[in-house]
Amino acid sequence: MSEPEQQVLNIPQPPDFIFKYRGNRQHPSRVVLEQENSTFILQSVKYPGLADQPKEYYKKWNIDEEKSRPYFNFTPEEKKMGGILAQFQGVPYPSKCFPFPEAVHALNMVKRITIWLIHMFASKALSPSFLGFAFTPRKQKLRAINNFVKYYQATSMMIMGPYYLDDHFYCSAARGTRKLLSVFFKEIGIEMYDQLAEIFAMFIEYDNGYRLRLEDAMSCSTKEQMLANPRKEIQRIVGIIASRELPGKESQSIKYINTGKLLSYVLLLPSIKRAFKKAMEEVDYTDLQLDDADRYHVLLWKDYNFLGKSIEDRLNTYINDIHKGNVPLRVTYKGQ
After folding, report:
1. Could you give the angle at the alpha carbon of 98 between the alpha carbons of 222 and 75, nearest 5°?
2. pLDDT tens digit string along 111-132?
3. pTM of the predicted model, to two decimals?
4. Staple 45 to which of 40, 116, 330, 336, CB 3.0 to 4.6 Å?
């Protein structure tokens, strides 16, 4: 399959009013990206699998730059979808979130730190230490945990601080994640509970791969199942994510498996389990699941078996069932 036609266009910086800390985005990551001549590419994609379709599918797109350029709708989350929406000509649903390159670069640094920590804490070598920690007096445990959180949050803020959004500009999944974790962290005694929860909300907001995988797996679950047996349900959800990764992407699965292991360990503690259930009771579970817009857009993601279906099956749904062969010009953006 030949490479899709490309238009190299500039992705605008979001307006200052959507950020929590305004006028503060002169960040090293921006300089690095500019020095590397990093650009965003808006692609008019001829979809994988179209080679099997009749010739009328092959007609060349007449690209009108102004009409095919996405525009970004920065509005408070007044509606269920809410957040930052990229709307495309001829596409029935907007694409959520706006992972612009400077924010993604900063986020990736914090993600790497977090993944390393998860791998370390989930390792078998530390299992005896967890047992010892479990029997440590609560006051000492909280002191150690809060010290760790303080330094982790400070490091994350130093890197990602310029890209924190004002609260009502997060997408529903990020808002739901933040509410869930904020209540949970507060219940277990973490002092910087909301600041810590916001870090993980940022992972959801600026990484569509994480967000959509989480929503895809959570759509196979219900709040009732989660409350009935949190450990079992989390392990099942992690298993769904791992099973839908494509062959050769085992490293992706390991991240989720280790996260599931770590959660399984801590949920053995009755106080942690109670806190988790209380947090889950307070969140709108549908915020953590795919909605109609997400289900539409994941039909074109080829690096993961969203909805439990192959890219070929999803393309058939997109091209033939939804658009009846008259596919719209597809414009996507990615770091390059």
Report:
1. 85
2. 999 988 877 776 666 666 666 6
3. 0.77
4. 330
